[in-house]
Structures are given as C-alpha cells and as structure tokens.
Amino acid sequence: MSTLPRISIVTPCLNMGRYLEDAIRSVQEQNYPNFEHIIIDALSSDNTAEIVRRYPNVRFVSEGDRGQSDGLNKGFRMATGEIVGWLNADEYYLPGALPAIAQAFQAHPEADVIYGDGIGVDEKGHVLRTKPAHRFNYNILLYYGCFIGTLNTFFKRSIFEQGIFIDVDYRVVMDFEYFVRLGAMGKAFSYYPSLLGAFRWTGQNASLQTDKRRAERLRVQRTWSRMKLPDFGYDLLSEIYRAKRISLKILNGNYRRELRIRSHSGEPTDWFCSQQSRKICETLINDYFGTSSHPQLSGVAGA
Questions:
Q1: In terms of C-beta density within 10 A (0-12 exposed, 13-18 middle, 19 or more buried), how is residue 286 classed?
Q2: Does residue 295 register a pLDDT over 70?
Q3: How far apart are alpha carbons 210 and 3 in whole angstroms?
Q4: What topology does CATH give the domain 7-289?
Q5: When you count CB atoms within 10 A of the terminal residue's CB, does the N or C end of the chain come out lower?
C-alpha cells in the first residue's frame, strides 16, 4: 500500500435523512485526505438527496435495489480504495478512525479484515454503552453469533475483486453470514481494540428482530458447521460459546474498558458539531484504552 492508502466508505441508505448528515460529516472531517464516500440510496422519499447535494465530493447513486445487501454490494463494486469500510446511514465514525485503520493495515499487510470496537448511542448521539468485540475466534463467531460490528470493520478491496460479496438472501444477519463465510474461506481477521464508531440503538434496528435473527442464524450454522445438529443443538452450542466469549473478553480486558466508559454515559459524541463534543470523544477514546497511545492489533487469525 502507498503512504496514505485510499479508503472507500460505502453507506446504504433508505429514508435516513434525519441521520445521514452525521454519517457524512464523520467521514468528511476525519483529517484523512485520501478517501471516497459512496452512498447507495434505494430511492428515498425524504430529504436524503437534498443533504447529499451539500457535499459535492460524495459519490451518490439513487436507484431501486433488492434490499440493503444489494445496495452494499453495488457500493463495494464501485469502491476504488485499497481499504473499504461499511458505514450505515444512522451510524458515524469517531475522530481518528480512518487514520488509525490505515496505519493498522500498513502495519499488518497480511490481514484481510480489521475490526475494532464501537459505542452505542441514543438518537441524539449520547453515550449509552460500549459494544466491545475481542480477538478473532472462528468457532465463537459461528456458534455464538456475530460479535463483530460492521461499523467498526474494514476490508481489503481484494476480497471484492475476488467476487466475494454479501448474500442478498439474508435480511437480518447478512453481516454474520458474510463474516462466517470469509472465515471459512481462510480470510485473515485482526482485532484493533479501540473505539472507531458510534451505533444508534433506536429500537427499530434490523438486527433486533429476534425471531428472524434466530432463523437466519440457524441457517448459517447448518450451512457451515461440521457438526450436523438439530436446531436445539445449535441453540445449546450458542450458550456454551457465549461462556467462552465471556472468558475471552475477560482475558482481553474488555470489561475493564466497559467500566471506564460508564462515567461517560449520557455525554454527547457528535464531535463534528462542536469542539466540546470533539474533546469529549477524544477523552472517551483515550479512557477506553487507558492510554493516549495507539493500541496494538491482536494476532491475525482465520478459521
């Protein structure tokens, strides 16, 4: 990769005008010059197009699609960056996310996927809680479920050049299926233990659709598990690997990080709107890791 690798950010959108500008500004104000932001809109009927027109350097496509996964795949095909990020329209990056990820890929060129941590915020962007991941473990991913947040995940473009895209038949756990498939194909994952973005908990998120989520999770497990079990067997394995995940989070120090962030509950994180919010975010990020220095990536791992 070059000194400043190009980063492409892909944002699928449908009637998310009330949040979209936060997502755009969080990319535009990253203090990282070599990027592109691609917004794939599914014919929104709100003010999405009006918002995007304020940012002439955003690549904007508005046309019908087969759902969020189809829109994402369109954006991934358009991406010209060596590194590609997935940012939903109701999410936003925290300050320093893109420079940190560029540095991480340069330091670990063997990684195909690098993911970090995020924070959950309310509709106004106030801190609710952290959402930590942990070192990559394929069995925990497959049997427990998706512990990797798409907001905090970046891919080498070579994955898409190989024709590996999201399965449009999945409507709720498309991210889980995609990560499991990448892991099964031997793609290398690495964990970057720092806060990269903010995810809104609105009560309407697709990932909160419990029944559909379980049905699709079981479908993924039946497809990729070497153990052919009845559905209750996969449910039991999910609880077993939940305990293993807790152990891994303890070893990674993630619960300590969660405790550090509790003191920031209710604080604003819309850092692109005011200097005060920017300072709060910078303090939050430093408190999360316990230092102002860059955290180190975990070892690169696959299935």
A1: middle
A2: no
A3: 44
A4: Spore Coat Polysaccharide Biosynthesis Protein SpsA; Chain A (3.90.550)
A5: N
